[in-house]
């Protein structure tokens, strides 16, 4: 290897790709390659979690500030549902982690909803009150 992972990531990645194409497996930086592959998977999971967090914030606002409901909130809900479904379509194995992802995203969303509404987080349910099917249903808006 001529390019170092820590000093030139782009150069390192291109060199690793060239080594793979040439099937020079013995020359690969396997430790850092494994780390990067795992990081790519975590990135997809964080992407889904982020989409769900924004979706949950808006569903909570929709339910707990019904007097402020707006077209913008509905459009954000619709957009985040589409984007979350796209992440799941492109990464179907994330469905195996949905329970944990929803739990994490909802916990963060409660904090975000408190910040955006000034409603104390103790008012919101401690765990996600909606099923995954409800969350993703374009006709579902909480009461």
Run of helices and strands: HHHHH
- The global form is elongated
Number of helical segments with 4 or more residues: 5
Structural class: mainly alpha
The N- to C-terminal Cα distance equals 60 Å
Helix content: 55-70%
Would you identify the regions where 5 or more consecutive residues have pLDDT less than 50? none
Count of beta strands: 0
Mean pLDDT, all residues? 95
Largest sheet: none
Strand content: under 5%
- The whole-angstrom Rg is 20 Å
Features:
143 residues, mainly alpha, 65% helix, elongated
Plain-language structure description:
There is one protein chain. By secondary structure, this protein is an all-alpha fold. It has a domain at 46-136. It has helices at residues 9-21, 30-64, 71-90, 98-117, 132-136. It starts with 8 loop residues before the first helix and ends in a 7-residue tail after the last helix.
Topology:
Blueprint (H helix, E strand, L loop, with lengths): L8 H13 L8 H35 L6 H20 L7 H20 L14 H5 L7
Helix pairs in contact: 2-3, 2-4
What's this, in brief?
The protein is mainly α. The chain has helices at residues 9-21, 30-64, 71-90, 98-117, 132-136.
